[in-house]
Design brief:
This protein is an alpha/beta fold and 281 residues long. The chain has helices at residues 19-32, 51-63, 79-88, 100-107, 146-153, 175-181, 196-206, 219-231, 262-267, 272-278, and strands at 6-9, 36-41, 73-74, 93-96, 117-118, 121-122, 141-144, 157-160, 171-174, 186-188, 211-215, 238-242. Bound molecules: glutamic acid (GLU). Residues 6-104, 181-277 form the Glutamyl/glutaminyl-tRNA synthetase class Ib catalytic domain.
Length: 281
Amino acid sequence: MADGAVTRFAPSPTGLLHLGHAYAALIAHREAAPGRFLLRIEDIDRARCRSEFETAIYEDLRWLGLDWPDPVMRQSERMAAYRDALTRLTPLTYPCKCRRGDIRAALSAPQEGAPLAGPDGLIYPGTCRDRQMADAGPDDVIRLDAARAFDALGIDHLSFRDAAIMPGHDHILSRDQFIAGIGDVILSRRGMGTSYHLAVVVDDAEQDISLVTRGKDLFDSTWIHVLLQKILDLPTPLYQHHRLIRDDAGKRLAKRDDARAIRAFREDGTSPAQIRDLLGL
Ligand code: GLU
């Protein structure tokens, strides 16, 4: 972008950063120039996040040559903002008590065919859809009623602009495709007060992110974010979905792939320039 974008790298401190994270961070940093590259710590899942991993994130990113403005946004400090957003979404939400096993059982009832999964997991069959928010209990998750959301907005499709494709060729998803392939996503997880999708949308807006760079694995999640932005009346940024870094067997790297942790390369004497080379940057 000629005048610079505001981008972000948003890791969760649930393990050491690996080559895939280095790639995502370097792309976000590169695409921001001469704008602003922000760092956001996505630590809403308190059970899985560790402060030592957060410290390691700062160290590894600095070692890679990246810098970002302080203070860093930490999602664990933003619960009030998520609560407000959830309250605004109340007319389009319902409490749901189904556990994964219940959903699987409902989906595999003979007339329903095989369970289908979308970017938010199994596509929810709607068992609790008629429950009222006034009856929500502590063991419930909160779901967005996707059909009601499209109807309330009076739209029959979503679209977003992708920085990687020709201007004017926006990605489009119809209401029916959303309902069939994504469904009633969770906006607040049990005991968490929010979900990844809700927190990301609220925070991208709060940080004025103008370009979201993220892996292709999150492409389908972007539809959820675009829908939430519309309902919450927040701007939809430009998106750019980049390739995923895979291991030698072609599998996407995961946090448990410690051999490819940035730290392991660093301890082996690899330089940041060699990491960029390795990633084709
Ligand atoms: N915490 C998410 C991740 O690490 C952020 C990605 C995104 O929303 O773009 O995958």
